[in-house]
Amino acid sequence: MLIFIARRIGTMVLTMLVVSLILFLLLEINVEGVAIKVLGAFTSDQQREIWLEENGYFDPLPLRYARWVGNAVVGDFGESVRFKVPVSEILLPRIWSTAVLGFWALLFASAIGLFLGVIAGMREGSKLDRTVSVGSIVTTSVPEFASAPLLSALFVFYLPQTIGWGLPGTSSMSSGFDWVQLILPVMVLVLYDFGYIARMTRASMAEVMMTHYIRTAVLKGLPYGTVIRKHALRNALIAPFTVIMLQINWLLSGVIVVEFFFAYKGFGSLLLEASLNQDIFLIEACAMVAVFVAVATQTLADIGYTYLNPRIRFS
């Protein structure tokens, strides 16, 4: 087990290095372009050359890459062109904000998806199964840029006029953290996300329920609830576990639409703002954080397989 974990961590580090090299070559191999993005298009050639020399951009490319990686490891991505402060001062609070939003969205989406998927898989072909399947397909077919306006029209404009109660239409947290302002963004994410988990859980649960050991346990007279909890559920959760772990990466970097629509100051809106303003150092930091989360969650998913089903062996 320890050897497997060490291999996965080694693969994770190697992946990070490969992606960092590609990112570095794409964004920093053209030193003149870097100087223009940082200093502006109306600076003189002499000003750019002075800045490039002061920041070591005339050093050999391998040395520049090694220095860039070393600084990234300790969290030093330079100074934001847009905000004029170190990137870490902006990045960390935004990551935390998205982590709060993502935690509640993933918690509710996983709970709803697993519950509906399990009960649908237990009764394959029933009306309940068909209802859950159709509902999951419908919700996952409606993207966030469509569901966000629809829910806002309902909870921000229609309900306050009819029953005198509604939800805030923005989540800027301008007056401090407010749980109420999280409801609509979380609702949009859950509405789009739980269907994936429900469908995967339903398919996995239906397959497990048809296996010989489940039929044998039922024929032996074991209580149906015991068969589900101790025999079926653990094996059925392997596939949904993969989906849930993959959603963590999506919730970090894929919530740009939701955060922008509700004016939520998170990682997704920061990445969008950095791209629109060509903030090269902030873009690099956001990209590396997103890659780290992606490979880390995938590594945790692989390790989690062995705990859900110890019979699984990795070569």
In terms of topology, how is this protein built?
Blueprint: H1 2-28, H2 31-39, H3 45-54, H4 61-73, H5 87-122, H6 127-141, H7 144-162, H8 183-209, H9 212-219, H10 224-236, H11 238-253, H12 256-261, H13 267-276, H14 280-308
Helix pairs in contact: 1-14, 2-3, 5-6, 5-8, 5-11, 6-8, 7-8, 8-10, 8-11, 9-10, 11-14, 13-14
Describe the fold and architecture.
There is one protein chain. The chain has helices at 2-28, 31-39, 45-54, 61-73, 87-122, 127-141, 144-162, 183-209, 212-219, 224-236, 238-253, 256-261, 267-276, 280-308. The protein is an all-alpha fold. It folds into two domains: 2-73, no CATH class; 88-308, Orthogonal Bundle (MetI-like fold), CATH 1.10.3720. The chain crosses the membrane at residues 12-31, 95-120, 132-159, 179-198, 237-262, 282-308. Pfam families: BPD_transp_1 (PF00528). It comes from Pelagibius litoralis. InterPro entries: MetI-like, MetI-like_sf.
